[in-house]
Each structure stands twice: as structure tokens, then as C-alpha cells.
Design the sequence.
């Protein structure tokens, strides 16, 4: 019974993600810049700031399905960053953040990775809606990225140039297991 509050919290967070708009993928997003800045300061992490149209066009939905639902990308966003989404078609606090960055309303997805003080750590990413572009952006700002993120970049690069198979040769099974395994 000691774990009941945790079980209830997990149930509700899972239920909320299941109801999350397709444009936001499977990332557990914050929705308030003040909260994101506070968490970024506490955790010493950059803010993964997504400007997204919700509900959105087919580009926004495809971005949610193909990029923001990729399990390794979701893992990296939630582990290495403080994820924050700003709806680019709403008023209030969302509008204030749009104005702060000079972002247009009703725009396709835009990614910025910013520090705790809302300063850009990389150039604004817009127009390239591929998993590779997001992974490269994350790697650009992370001082010690997880190894799986580098491997994912290599895999996505291979896909981008059309590599379908890779052939490796080795003189001994065990040496290959050691180096590649």
C-alpha cells in the first residue's frame, strides 16, 4: 500500500500521454516557461523548446509521429533536457514566449534549445522535420551525450544516404563480438 500514490500517479500520467495530441508525440512536455526554467536550473539541463501547432497540419502531425515518438529521441529529450512545448496558435503565456523569440503564429514545428536564461544554445531549427536534424541539434549542445544518441545519428545518416545493408568482416568471431557487440 505504500506504493499506491506512485501507482496512481503513473496511471494518470500514462493516461494523459495517451490523450496527448498526435502533434506532441510521446514526450512528457511541460507547458510553462517559468516552471521549465526552474527545473532547468535545478537539474542543470538545457530546455528543449518546441513551438508546435496543436491541433496542427499534416506536417505537425507527421513530426509528432515520426520524430517526437521515436523511442530513443523521446528518451534523450526527457533525460538530457527539460522538455517544454509552446503552442504557436494560442494566446496568454504561449503568446508571450512566441513574442520573446519572434516566432510566428500558426507555423510548422520550430525547435530551439535554450539555457536556463532562455538564451539560444544552437541556431533555431525550422524546415527540417527529420529525426536526424533533431538528433544532430541535441548532440550539438550536449557536452556528454549518451552513447546511444551518437549511434542513432549514425543510423539515421546511413538511412538518409540510402544505406540498406552493412557488411562487416573479421578474422575471429570473438574479436568482432568485443569490438561491435
Sequence:
Amino acid at each position: 500500500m505504500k506504493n499506491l500514490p506512485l501507482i496512481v500517479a503513473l496511471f494518470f500520467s500514462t493516461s494523459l500521454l495517451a490523450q496527448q495530441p498526435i502533434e506532441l508525440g510521446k514526450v512528457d512536455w511541460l507547458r510553462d516557461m517559468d516552471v521549465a526554467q526552474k527545473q532547468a536550473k535545478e537539474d542543470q539541463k538545457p530546455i528543449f523548446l518546441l513551438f508546435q501547432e496543436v491541433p496542427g497540419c499534416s506536417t505537425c502531425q507527421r513530426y509528432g509521429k515520426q520524430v517526437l515518438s521515436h523511442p530513443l529521441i523521446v528518451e534523450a529529450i526527457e533525460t538530457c533536457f527539460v522538455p517544454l512545448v509552446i503552442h504557436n496558435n494560442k494566446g496568454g503565456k504561449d503568446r508571450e514566449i512566441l513574442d520573446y523569440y519572434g516566432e510566428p503564429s500558426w507555423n510548422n514545428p520550430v525547435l530551439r534549445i535554450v539555457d536556463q536564461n532562455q538564451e539560444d544554445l544552437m541556431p533555431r531549427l525550422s524546415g527540417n522535420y527529420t529525426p536526424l536534424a533533431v538528433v544532430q541539434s541535441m548532440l550539438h549542445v550536449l557536452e556528454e551525450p549518451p552513447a546511444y544518441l551518437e549511434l542513432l545519428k549514425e543510423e539515421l545518416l546511413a538511412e538518409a544516404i540510402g544505406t540498406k545493408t552493412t557488411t562487416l568482416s573479421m578474422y575471429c568471431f570473438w574479436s568482432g563480438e568485443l569490438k561491435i557487440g
